[in-house]
Write a structure and sequence with these properties.
It is built from seven helices and no strands. By secondary structure, it is mainly α.
């Protein structure tokens, strides 16, 4: 009886410790694990359904390095940013507590990695021939 109570109490203390410190250790997990666990976290933020650059600016998808003000001022009639990419960038911003520029750079690196493109922007193809130093 006391052993069962001790195991229960220990698991409650350890679980509470993990829950309280989750913002510290969660970003250290591999990306696949974060993506799997992300669906269980309560960081959901609904994105606007309309897609214009003005909506993107109002949602915070702009910075000094990625300025959409010119598109809004010029009356750009194109659709705004990609919905899937906006969701992934917003997820990175919320889960890791990083800025828009950092989340956008991390998202771009992930897209490049999935497409077989290296960090330097060149394909990871072993048959690649370049006339410079790689």
């Amino acid at each position: 009886m006391y052993l069962l109570f001790g195991v229960f109490l220990l698991s409650m203390v350890v679980g509470t410790g993990f829950y309280i410190t989750r913002n510290t250790w969660f970003p250290l997990l591999p990306d696949r694990v974060q993506d799997a666990l992300y669906s269980t976290r309560t960081l959901y933020t609904r994105l606007p359904t309309s897609t214009s650059f003005m909506d993107d600016v109002e949602s915070g998808f702009t910075s000094s390095n990625f300025d959409l003000a010119g598109n809004v001022m010029d009356g750009d009639s194109r659709a705004g940013l990609d919905q899937k990419s906006k969701q992934e960038v917003m997820k990175l911003m919320k889960s890791r507590g990083i800025s828009f520029d950092e989340a956008r750079a991390l998202h771009t690196q992930r897209v490049f990695k999935k497409a077989g493109i290296g960090a330097d922007g060149l394909p990871n193809d072993p048959k690649l021939v370049t006339f410079g130093g790689r």
